[in-house]
Amino acid sequence: MTTSEIISLIALVVGSLALFLFGIKYMSESLQKLSGERLRFIFSSFTSNRVKAVATGAFITAAIQSSTATTVMTVSFVNAGILNLTNAIGVIMGSNIGTTITAWIISMFGIKYDMSTLAIPIIGIAFILMLFKQKQVKYSGECLLGFGLLFLGLGVLKDSLNGLDLANNPHFIEAIRSLVIDGSISYSAILLSVLIGTVITIILQSSSAMMAITMVLCYENVIPFEMAVALVLGENIGTTFTANIAASIGNIQAKKTARSHLIFNTVGAVWVLVFFRLIISLVDKITLNIEGQSPFVEAATIPFALALFHSLFNISNTFLLIWFIPQVEKLSTYLVKQSPTEEDEIFKLEYISSGFVGLGELAIDSAKKEVQVYAKRVLRMYEFIPQLLDLKDKKKYSYLLERIERYESISDRMEIEIANFLTQLSADNITAESNRRIRGMLRVIDNLESIADQNFQLAKTINEKNEKKIWFTPEMREKLNEMFELTRNSLQVMNDNLNENYRMVEITAALDAETKINEYRDYLRS
Fold first, then answer.
1. Is 505 part of a structural domain of the chain?
2. CA 408 to CA 376: how far, in whole Å?
3. DSSP-assigned states of every residue in 17-82
4. Strand, helix or coil at 329?
5. Which domain holds residue 167?
6. Taking the CB of residue 503, how many other CB atoms lie within 10 A of it?
7. Are both 348 and 311 inside the same structural domain?
8. Among 240, 216, 169, 194, CA closest to 17
9. Boundary residue ending a domain (335, 359, 382)
10. Same domain, 72 and 175
11. Whole-prediction pTM
12. Which of 203-212, 222-231, 377-386 is predicted least confidently?
């Protein structure tokens, strides 16, 4: 084979991979469009315990055909405070089960049969559907187009890898033989294959694409079955890096969620490696009973056997580790260093829950403490805003904007949760004094939410100014910072008062702070 032919075939492999990846991406995105807000509803409503969370992760991944999309969405929902870490770990465990559906689709249709000829009519039908104005029909067409491109890419990939003729290349054959000891692949070769599977999956950013490559290589007798299984193990580790990349710009809980995914899949790979020969033997026996031939003997059974191993691994790993979610959570917390300022960026109610409603006065005291936490967060959010005027580093500036937006989202949720709790309390048989305290706290949290909204609007205004390259003079900046400091002082007074007994609060300091702000405002206007 000439150099130009080799280059041409390598270009075909790269192009077919790109087509395959684009097909998966397009199909996944269109399925997400079809499901719309239902995905958010499912995430927030059906993850109340670890079993439901696992089932939700499996269902969503099977529905949108992308474990990467599910894990990235999970990380983003944790970042937004919609999911807590414990339930997010369950969703990610479930996504590992859901992603096995893709392997079964590839094994049943994409390897044994020439789907590239069928892909063209599918793409044609998809194009017609995409011309419709109705969104559901249009999105269905986009999904079908992704499906067609996926199999078109897979067909070209199979042909191009076959064209490389690695199975008859003496150098490649000798390299593979060097890994075999007494008829079985050596343990060092298994570990090397896991590493290769991990690295290539990280590069491709798709375990499905790597699974397709593995199936084709093994089906064409380029690599032995045991090596293919080890590559699949590596793919399960490599696929976790996408979520970790997505979490790198998220809050501390998002980072913990991504690390949990890495821990879960890595632990699974380790215990499978310990029992590697035993598991291979089990897969061989099941394949022999169902398909009538062993994957070590008949190439036609290899796609089935690899999909079977993928499913057995992910299902058994989930059922094994679902009981250790608290331990996985602790380990992920240990791996992610948390600064004190990041603690406020996690949505959690520290002092109240629905179980406290029947505790009467004690519940009201708990609600008061939660209001104090709320006020502290609003003050911290405000303290970020003056920094937007001075930050020159674009990355730090963008991160600060994201933090302010995150605080605004947390503020909205805190107001709703505390208000719901107080409303439930007021429905109980409580004293008139308790009712008065509840009404007072409802007014306070309403005002706190309004302050948080104004903080966010201030940040947006400064950002618009910066984007339009409108700059303040040093004198203007100095005066603005003085106003920021006066306002910050007034918010500190508010926090101090909320930490006191409401009936004992002296409003002198608050009135003094307001007077100073008004006087300085009038001075700036004059």
1. no
2. 13
3. HHHHHHHHHHHHHHHHHHHTHHHHHHHHHS-SSHHHHHHHHHHHHHHHT-HHHHHHHHHHHHHTTS
4. helix
5. 3-335
6. 9
7. no
8. 216
9. 335
10. yes
11. 0.59
12. 203-212
Residue 516: what residue type? K
- 152-200 pLDDT, tens per residue? 877 777 677 666 565 566 665 566 566 665 556 778 888 988 998 898 8
Q: Secondary structure of 356-374 in the HEC alphabet?
A: HHHHCHHHHHHHHHHHHHH
* C-alpha–C-alpha distance, residues 286 and 400, integer Å: 54
Amino acid at 231: L
Q: Is 143 exposed, middle or buried (0-12, 13-18, 19+ CB in 10 A)?
A: buried
Mark whether 427 and 311 lie in a shared domain: no
Question: 3-state class of 145 per DSSP?
Answer: helix
Q: Which residue is listed with tokens 């990349």?
A: 245
Answer for the pair 56, 243: CB distance below 8 angstroms, yes or no.
Answer: no
106 and 69 Cβ atoms separated by less than 8 Å: no
Decide which of 335, 354, 381 is a domain's last residue: 335
**DSSP structural state of residue 4:** H
SS3 507: coil
Let me know whether 360 and 385 are in one domain.
Answer: yes
- Cβ neighbours, 10 Å, residue 203: 12
Domain count, the chain: 2
Residues 373 and 290 reside in one and the same domain: no
CA distance 517 to 405: 26
Residue type, 498: L
